[in-house]
Amino acid sequence: MKKIVFALLMCLMMTSSANSQMSQFKALFLFNFAKNVNWPGQSPGSNFVITVIGNDELAAELKGLAKIRKINNSTLVIRESQSAEEVGDSHIIYLSSTQSSLMPIVASYQKGKPVLIVADKQGLCNQGAGISFFTSGGKLKFEICPRNVETNGLKLSQKLIALGSLVQ
Amino acid sequence: MKKILFLLLFILASISGFAQEPQSGEMTREQVLDMSVDDLSQLPLEDLMTAMDLMGVSSMEELTNLLINKGMSSASKRVENAFDSPLSSTALTREEIEMSGATTIEEALRLIPGIIVREKTNGNYDIHIRGLDNLPDKNMLIYSENTNTLLMIDGRPVFNYVHGGIVWETLPVGFADIERIEVVRGPSSALYGPNAVNGVINIITADTNEDSPLVSGSAQVGTQNTYTGNIALRQDLGNGFTTAVTSNYQHRERETEEIFVFGKENMSLPDNSGGRAIFNKGRFFSLEQYQRLVDANGLPVADPLDDINELFAEPGLARENYGINGYVSYDPDFDASFQLSGGYQNSYVNTSTLGDPPTSLGGRKSNTWYGNLEAAIGRLKLQTNYTGGTQNFATGDQGFKIDMSQFNASAEFDWQLKSLNLRPGVSYQSAAYDDSPYLKGDESGYLNGKKDLNTVAASLRADYLAFGKLRLVAALRAEKYNFPDKLYSSWQFAGTLPLGDRQRIRAVYSRANRSSFIINSHSNYTWDREGRMPPRFIHFAGNEDYDLMTIDMIELGYRVRPANNIVIEAELFGSDSRNYGALMPTSTTLNLSPEIFQYADNPIMMLLATQPKVDIVYQNSGVDARQIGASVSLDWVLSSKFIAKMHATWQKTTLQDYSNTTRDEIIEMQMMSLAEQIEPNAMNIMTGQLTELSTSIKPTGLQDDVEHKSTPSLFGMINLIYKPLEKVELSSYAYYLSEQTFVNQYANETIDPKLILNAQATYKFNKYASFFLNARNLLNDNSNEFAFMDNIGGIYLAGLRFSY
C-alpha cells in the first residue's frame, strides 16, 4: 500500500516538475514576444502589463522574470484574472489551455484595443488569438495570426512571424 | 491490385525506417540546463526556441495535453476545451486510436463512454449510443439498425436515408484521414438536425500544414485473412494552399461460410437416405443445406425465386472495402478559409440483412462518391456537399439496388457580442433515391421510381456567460419536412457552472427527433411469395403522414480534474422517447372463387388458393421507451510511462404501451379470421356473390413497464497503456457487454456477458516507423456479440506504422 501511495506521489511530482519547466519556457516566450511586438504609444518608463487567465504557475514564473528584467525600459507588471470580462488594461493577455473556452469572449472584450492575446491551444487563432502555443513532435511551437494582432494596432516583427506557424 | 497496394505500404514504411534522424543545432541540452532564467531571458527568440527544442516537451506534458486537455468542437460548434463542453461529449484522438490497436473506426468507438459496439461479422459492427436499439422489437432485423445517431465527417452527414441508420462500411475515410472522433451524447437535433436523437458522431479529418508528414499510414495483416491499410500523402504548397490524398483498404473474412437460418417449427433437412433431421430452432447451415431446408408443410424455407449465388456470392467474405479521398484547403491572407474535399468508396459486406429473408445474414454492396466544400468568410460559415452513387442494400434480393443522391447546404453566422455568442443558421437537405434503373421488365422494387425527402431548417444557438461564470446555452431549431408535411422543433438548454478551476457541474434538457426515411414514406413493394406458405402477396406501403420519433432528455453532469493529469466525469441521464414506427400489417384480403372448394379437405391449400394479400403500411407503433442511466469515465496519465483510461455505463429501459405481437402473428391472426369466414359464406362464394373477404383486426392489450433487454444494462472499458522503454509501448483494453436478450419477429436470443480483451505491443524503430503485434479478442472468446450473427473469435495481426 505504501508503495502505491509513493508511486502516486511520484507521478504527481513528475507532473508538477514537467509543468514547471513548461511554464518557465512559456513565460520566457511571452517575455520574448513582448520584445518582438511594437505597441503604439508605449513610452519608456511606463508599466508593461501581462495578464494571466488561468495558469498560476505561469504567472509565478512571469513574476520572477519581472523582478530581474524589463521590457524596453518598462517595468513588467503581472496580473492574474479569473474572468474574461474583468481584465484590466493590458499589453499581453495570456489565456491558459484550461480556460480556452473563454477565447471568443476575451477577443470580443478586447476588440480594437492594443492587446496581444496569447492562447494555449491549437486552433485558437481562428477564434481571435494573436498567438497560440501548441505542442507537436515533442516540441513547443506557436501559431501566429498577424491579422488578429495588427487589427488591434500592434506591429509584429518579421522574425516573430517567421518563427511561428502562420495562420492567415 | 490489392496485394500491390499492400506491398507499397510496406515498402514505404521500410524506406521510412532507414531514414536518418536530423541533427540538432549547435547549442547542447547540457548548456541549456546550466542556464539561469536570466540567461534564458536574454536569448533572442530563435535561440530560445532552439533551447526549448533541446529540452523538448516532456512526455508527461505531451500525454497530458493529448488526454487531459483535449480540444473539441462538436458540442459548441467551435474549438473549446473538452473539460468545458456544455454537453456530454468525448473527443478521441488519432493517437489514442493508434495506442488502442483498433483496426476499424467502429471498433475505436469502444474507447468512448456510452457507446455500445457489438461485432456482427469480422469488421462489421452494430453501434448505438446509450441504447434504444431494436425498437420496436418483434419485427425485422432492420429495426435493430441505429437510426438514432447522426454520423458526420467534417459536418457532412453520412447517413442512410433509405432505411435510416449508418452504413459503416461506406465511410470513405480511414485512420490516415482522422484527426479525432468527437461524440456528443444525448439529443442534438437542435445543433445538427434530425437523427441526432441519441447523439452525434463527428469524424474530424486532419488538417495539412507545414508540420504534416509527407507520407504516413499503417498496414497490418492477420488471421481470418484480415488485411488493413491506410496511407496519407500531405503537402503544404505554400501561399495558403495545402493538399492531401488518402486511401484505405480492408479485407476481412468470416470464420465460416455457413449462414444462420431462423428457426421454424418442425423445419427439417432431408438427408440422402430418405430421413430428415428436424430443427425447431435457428442455427447455421451451409448454403447447400439452406437450399434443401423445408418447413413443416414441406415447402422450401429458402425463397425459390432467389438465386443463392447472387444472394451469397462470397459467403466467406465479411468485409472488403476501399476508399480514396482528396483534400485541398486554401487560407487566403484575408479573413477567410476554404476546404474542398472529395472521395470515392467501394464496399461489399456480409452482415445482418436489411431485407426480410429467412436468414440473418445478407450481402450489401455500395459504391459512392462525394464532394464537400466548407468556407469560412469572416464570421459566416458555409458548407455544401453532395453524395451520390449506387447501393445494393440486399444483394441478390430484387428491388434493393438503388441510385442515391444526397445534397446538403447550410449557412451559419458566428456572432460574438461580449459575453454572448449568437449563431443563427439555415440549412437545406434533399435526399433522393431511385430503384427504377435496376428493375427489369415487370419486376417490383420497393420504391418503383425516384423518391425524395426534402428538409428546410432554421436554427439559433445562444451561448451566454452570466456573471463571468455561469454558462447558459440555448439552441432552437425548426425543421420543415415534405414527408410528413409537418414542422418539427428541437431544442437544447444547457447550463454549466464552474466550481473553481477544477470542477464543473452541468445540466441539460433537450428534445430531438428523427427525420422520415424513404421506406417509411415511400415504400411501394409487392412481395410475391409464390411457392411459400400463405400469404401469397405482401404489399409494403409507405405513409406520408405519421409522427416522427421524438425524444426528451434530462441530464446532469459533473467533471473534476483533481490533478493536472486526471479527469473524472460522471453523467446521469433520463429520457422519454416515443412515436417509434414500423412496417406493420393493416389488413388482409382473400380472393374468393368457387374453385377454392376443390381443396376443401386441405385448409392450407384452400387458403393458398385464395391468394391472400396482406397490406403492410408504415405506422407508429405506440410504444414509449423510458430510459435512465449513468456513465462514469476516467482519464489518468499516471506518469510518462503509464496511462489508464476507463468508462462504464449502466442503463435501464422500460417500455410502456408495448405490443407483444409480431408482424407475422398479426398476419396469421387476420388470415385465420378470414379463413374461418369461408365456410359460413360458402353459398355466397359458390354463387359468385362474394368474391373478396377482408379484415383489419388486430390484437388488443398492451403491456406497461416491460423491461427492454436488447440493450445491455452495463457496458464499458478499461484501457491501460505502459511504455517501459522509449521504443516500446504495450497497450491493452478490455471491453465489456453484459447480458442482452434480442427479440425479433422470428426468434429470441439471449447473449451471455462478454469481456473482449485486446492487446497491442509496439516497437518504435525510430520516429519514422514502428512495428506492432496486435490481438483483437486475445483470449479467443469465440461467441457472438449480436443475435443470430457470427461468433467473433480472436484475430491476431502484425503490422507497420510509418510517418515521414
Structural features, described:
The complex is a heterodimer of chains A (168) and B (804). Chain A is built from 5 helices and 10 strands; from the N terminus they run H-E-E-H-E-E-E-H-E-E-E-H-E-H-E. By secondary structure, chain A is an alpha/beta fold. The N and C termini of chain A lie far apart (54 Å). Chain A has helices at residues 2-35, 56-68, 103-110, 146-150, 158-163, and strands at residues 37-38, 47-53, 70-71, 74-81, 92-95, 116-119, 131-136, 139-144, 155-156, 165-166. In chain A, the strands form 2 sheets. An 8-stranded mixed sheet of chain A has the order 3-4-2-5-6-7-8-10, with helices on both faces. In chain A, strands 1-9 form a two-stranded antiparallel ribbon. Chain B has 804 residues and is mainly beta. Chain B has 14 helices and 46 strands. Chain B has a 22-stranded antiparallel β-barrel. Chain B has a 5-stranded mixed sheet with strand order 3-8-9-6-7. Chain B has a 5-stranded mixed sheet with strand order 28-29-33-32-36. In chain B, strand 30 and strand 31 form a beta hairpin. Chain B is globular and about 110 Å long. Chain B starts with a helix and ends with a strand. At the A-B interface, helix 1, helix 2, helix 3, strand 8 and helix 5 of A face helix 3, helix 4, helix 5, strand 2 and strand 34 of B.
What's the gist of this structure?
Chain A is built from 5 helices and 10 strands, in the order H-E-E-H-E-E-E-H-E-E-E-H-E-H-E. Chain A is an alpha/beta fold and 168 residues long.
